[in-house]
Amino acid sequence: MTSSDFDVEFFERKLYTLKDSQESIQGLSAWCLERRQHHKKIVATWLQVLKKVKVEHRLTLFYLANDVIQYSKRKNFEFVESWGTTLQRATTMVRDEKVKHRILRIFKIWDQRQIYDEEFLADLSGLISAAPKKKLEPQPAGPPEEFQAALLISTMRSCATLEQATDARLRDLRESNIDIESAEELRASLKDRRRVEDAEKEIDLVARNVENYVRAIEAELRERRQVLELLEQADQFYETQRGEVKIVTNAYRNFGSRVKNLKKKLDELLPTFVSPIPSPDVNAPSPSPDSDIELPGDEAQVTNNQSGLIDVAPPSLYGSYPHEYDALPVPAPEMVQGNETTDFTNNFPSFMGGNVDFSNMVRSSNTHIIS
Q1: 118: containing domain
Q2: pLDDT higher than threshold 50 for residue 350
Q3: Which pLDDT score, from 0 to 100, does residue 10 have?
Q4: Taking every annotated instance into account, which residue ranges of this chain make up the domain CID (predicted)?
Q5: What are the tens digits of pLDDT across the range 291-327?
Q6: pTM, 2 dp
Q7: Is residue 359 assigned to a domain?
Q8: Looking at the structure, do residues 158 and 97 belong to the same domain, yes or no?
Q9: Cβ(136)–Cβ(96) under 8 Å?
């Protein structure tokens, strides 16, 4: 057998004969680790054997899984993830009081050594405590994956139809004129030859009615047996569904408890938080539409306007002033008495730093144009 092959039957025999001893468990654990490329087949076979053995041997199989998983966690092997996908189903098989506390001990060790995350292990602990069984029941045959309720309904309707047919055959039998219970009277009537043919016809009719009645009863009985079989399957299927619903309900209940505990801790910390923006008083008056709201900076603007100064600041590229720019007040131009003129060009300084006589420039340009 090459290294790429994996003998499932051989591994099953090893699992069945596994002993609850350190030497036996570590030996089979090393065997599994050597064939870690078949980790999926190993885990699947382990789960199938777990379903078939007694509860005491299931604990031994969990010890094997624990040894392989912890070693794989240190070496970063695939067994940790592969076994994690089947642990939820396997946990529901070890809820017996004989092994329950030891399985919980394994989960506690996994939590301390951070084999799996805390939430996953909390769900496993919830599953093992969901529906404890005081007595181990023999594992019945696996229920159908999905029960066909429509087949049960149609079979029951067919059974009702056959029951009506049986009643009709019974009425036909009772309506027969011949009294087959009185054999003496029947033999006496047969002595008369004229009655022989009529009696023969009546006997044939009764015989056919009896045969029809018997066949109707047999058909009805077969249909009733099928109804009973389907009802047993339905009971097994819905009982399994009920158990799974209990498991899910318990898991959600544990999750809700953790959420409540977290909410309780947050409520305890909530009074220590300081709101950055205090809420206004509920009795504070609201401003009316006609009220004049004073904005910050209005007083400074009024003061500057009263002093006769004009705030001049260059606009930015997008039409607004930068925050770091400090506008400098520039005095308004003064009117010189005695030399009052309507020519405003002499009142502006040149950007070169000197005064430019705009009036002379205007006269020279006009003279040039006239000439």
Answers
A1: 8-129
A2: no
A3: 92
A4: 3-132
A5: 565 555 555 554 544 544 444 445 544 444 444 445 4
A6: 0.38
A7: no
A8: no
A9: yes
